[in-house]
Write a structure and sequence with these properties.
six-stranded parallel beta sheet, Quinone Oxidoreductase, Chain A, domain 1, zinc, Rossmann fold, single chain, alpha/beta
Length: 346
Amino acid sequence: MRAACFETFQGPVAVTTLPDPAPAPDGVVIQVGATGLCRSDWHGWMGHDPDIRLPHVPGHELAGTVVAVGRDVRRWRAGQRVTVPFVGGCGHCGQCASGNHQVCDSQFQPGFTHWGSFAEYVAIGYADTNLVALPDAIDMATAASLGCRFVTAFRGVIDQGRLRAGERIAVHGCGGVGLSAIMIAVACGAQVIAIDIDADKLALARRLGAATVIDARVEGDIPAAVRAASDGGVELSVDALGHPVTCVNSILSLAKRGRHVQIGLMLADQARPAIPMDRVIAHELEILGSHGMQAFRYAPMMAMIASGRLRPDRLIGARVSLDDGARLLPQMDRFAGTGVTIIDRF
């Protein structure tokens, strides 16, 4: 199979020919129809993820067709169109038994713990627990765009953030995660404040329904600007970027008893930012993490997509080839472009 692979961290990403994978007894092999290019893949290439073993094929936002099935798989067969959460559960540990596959004690992550989807084929384990069937109405590129960004935003806003109609939410960072969070929040009837440093991303946030946009290049005090736009602070604030500054800004944007959800990754030397714990205690704030979404929780999101309430296809910014994806991966820290980049030619 053709695959994008790197042999050293921060080294060249080359498209090469590698052996086709075979399914594990509890797994399947998927022919990749489309896969997203995500900043998490860049973190992996940088060497920030201890699970990665070299050489490595990245890619964790995928959709495709099952082409081979392990002997122990009961729910899936060749020819089915599927997607998969970027964090998969083993189906057997205590976390999985409680329905929290996204924090499985033995989690499976294509593109991190195993080779990923920047390839013609990818092997996925624990298939009966983790695969999600694709409705005929959802094409491969749209399904891949759900990837880690849209589904993580959905769980972060809906399940972790507990957003309700009429509440106010601030979204710090208008990349793929942030724009997804904005779309989901608007669909829930919330008032959205979007913050970024890029005028094009803020313009897209406005088109997606953000009531207020704040240009962080212009506003010197982002929390003050958010509080001014929300009459004292928002009920929910999301750091969709993953940076010590946006994390603290998000917490300081909250109204009393507000909820901060950290979706954007902070790794390496940014992994442990200073938190304004005095404000957290005095205002009884909640700080919540969000790490993927269980396969069984896709159903409400898919229903909203099928009804037209959610349009993740509007977030697709570019469609590129595998060769282009290999070239673009090392540039993901530059935050260039608007929306989600999809690899759909292999």
